[in-house]
Amino acid sequence: MAIRIWAMCFLLAAGISAVQAQQQNSPTADQQTTQSATSGEKGGTPPNKSSPEQSAQQSQARSSEEVREAIRKFLAIGAPPNPQAAKRGQAIFVSTCGFCHGPNATGGAQGPNLVRSTVVLHDQGTGKDIGPVVHNGRPGKGMPSFPNFTDDQIHDIAQFLLGRTQAAANRMDYTIQNIVTGDPRAGQTYFQAHCSSCHSPAGDLARIAKKYDPVSLEGRFLYPGNSNRPGMGPPPDPRAEKHVTVTLPSGGVYSGVLVHIDDFSVALRDSSGAYRSWIYNDVKGILVEVHDPLAQHLVLLHQYSNADMHNLLAYLETLK
After folding, report:
1. What's the pLDDT score for residue 26?
2. DSSP character for 72?
3. 3-state helix, strand and coil shares in percent for the chain, rounded to the nearest 5
4. What pLDDT digit, counting tens, does each position of 29-56 carry?
5. In degrees rounded to 5, what are phi and psi of residue 263?
6. Whole-structure pTM over 0.70, yes or no?
7. What is the pLDDT of residues 111-122, one digit of tens each?
8. What is the 3-state secondary structure (H, E, C) of 196-214?
9. How many beta carbons lie within 10 A of that of residue 44, not counting itself?
C-alpha cells in the first residue's frame, strides 16, 4: 500500500512538473508582448502592451488552471459539472433534501452522507441512477418520494452532487475565499510591536502585497523558509538559511551554513565551500549551536490569535 501511494504521488508530481516545464519553454507574456511589438513596428499596428504585474498574474492564472487540469486527469474524476446546472441543483437540494442530508450533502439529522453514496458515485451526474430513488423514495428508510420532480430537475441535482463528490476526491481544487478580513490599523500596531526589529515596510517588505496574493503572503509569515529538496523548486533565500557553529573539545571552532543535523550527527558548509561533518559518538563533548534567523516566526506561530493573523495580513495587504 505504501509503495502504491508513493508511486501515485510520484506520477502526480511528474505530471505537474511536465506542465511547469512546458510553461517555462513556451514564450512568456512579456516575450509575446515584445514579439507583438516587433510585428506592430513592421506592420504599422500598435500592440496592446500589458504591465509586468499583469503579465505575471496572467501567467500564474494559466499555470494554476493547467495544474488543476493535470490533477483532474491523474485522479480520473472526469469532467466537472455544468456550473449553471449545479447551481440550480444546489438550490433544489438545499430546500428539499438539505434537512435530512445536510446542505452540502454530507449528512444531516436523519439522512446519510450522499458524497459517499455508491448510487451517487455511479450516477456520475447523469441523474439516471438517482432519479428512481428521488421519484420513488425509500419508505423503509424514512425517505419520502418526490414524484413531481422533472427530469431536468433530477439532472440538476445530479450535477450538484457530482460537484460535491469531485470536491471530496480532489482537495487540490478547493477554492479559498477572501481571507483579508482583519483590521489593518490593529495589524500595523502588532507589526510594530513584534516584527519591526527585523522587517521594514519601506525596506524588505516594500510593495510586498504586489508580489504575492493574500494566501501566499499569509503563508510566508506563518510558515517562512523553503522546504524544497535540492534541485526541486527555487533555491532557498540566503537570508533564511540556518547557520551553525561547532566547537570541538580540542578548541577548534567551525562555522557555516547548516546542511544537516539530527540526533546523531551535524554537517555544515563553510565560507570556502568545504563540507564538514561530525558524528557525536566519535567526538565526545562536541558543542553545536544553531542560529536560525526565522526562529522568531516559530515563536509567534504559537502566540498568534485568530485576530492577530487576520489583522497582520490586512496590514501587509496595504503595502502596495
Report:
1. 46
2. H
3. 50, 10, 40
4. 444 444 444 444 444 445 555 666 666 6
5. -75, -5
6. no
7. 999 999 999 999
8. CCCCCCCCCCCCHHHHCCH
9. 7
Phi, psi torsion values for 290, nearest 5 degrees? -100, 135
Position 38, amino acid: T
Is 213 within 8 Å of 178 (Cβ atoms)?
A: no
Say which amino acid occupies 285: G
Whole-angstrom distance, CA of residue 295 vs CA of residue 232: 24
* Coil/strand/helix, residue 81: coil
Contact 160, 167 (CB under 8 A): no
Residue 255 gets which letter from DSSP? E
- The rounded distance, in Å, linking the Cα atoms of 156 and 146 is 15
What letters, b where the CB count within 10 A reaches 16 and e where it falls short, cover 111-146?
bbbbbebeebeebbbebebbbebbeeeeeeeebeeb
Please check whether the domain covering 241-293 is classified as CATH 2.40.50. Answer: no
CA dist., res. 210 & res. 66, Å (int): 23
| Distance (Å) of CA 119 to CA 42, 127, 149, 162 | 62, 10, 18, 11
What count of other Cβ atoms lies within 10 Å of the Cβ of residue 13? 12
- The domain made up of 83-173 is a member of CATH 1.10.760.10: yes
CB–CB of 156/85 below 8 Å?
yes
Residue 269 contacts residue 275 (beta carbons within 8 Å): yes
Residue with cell 441535482: 157
pLDDT in tens, 276-303: 999 999 999 999 999 999 999 999 999 9
At residue 101, the pLDDT reads 94
| Residue 72: other Cβ atoms inside 10 A | 18
Dihedral, 103, 109, 115, 117 alpha carbons, nearest 10: -140
The larger pLDDT score, comparing residue 18 to residue 148, is at: 148
